[in-house]
Amino acid sequence: MSDIIGEEALMIDVRNNYTWSEINDFFTQLKPEGRQIHKHATGVVDMIFPFGYGILFILLSAFFLKKITRPDSNWMYLSLFPILLMLVDFKENFNTLHLLESFPDLTNEMVGSAAKITDLKTMLVNISMGLPLVLGIIWAIKWILNKYKNG
Hints:
Low-confidence stretches: none
Number of helices: 5
Structural class: mainly alpha
Distance between the termini: 60 Å
Mean pLDDT: 94
Strand content: under 5%
Helix content: over 70%
Radius of gyration: 20 Å
Oligomer: single chain
Largest sheet: none
């Protein structure tokens, strides 16, 4: 896509707070062949990523939660939070495909709604990535304190 427009081309799902004019200009610059590449990347390749990172975040969170709490604790449900991220990512992909299919007949409402979902996904990515990190830190502190207490 970057070769087509002659500069770095960011797919919609890595942009933040985009507007109708930005997306309209981007799609115009992409030309039909670039839009087709974006459709393929979004409709095929980007549909696989939520499974990969979602499962990774769930497993990491569950691993640390098991170390911090009991395996039968209700806190274990917290490890399922990344499922929300996965669902929002799929919604974002379908929104992007809809925008690509609808071009050049995009409306402010269509683009605005898609932009809000992309912003929500960004927030959920940060939380889902931060969850295992925070849980790992809690586990490490708990492990160190137990070592110190038990001599």
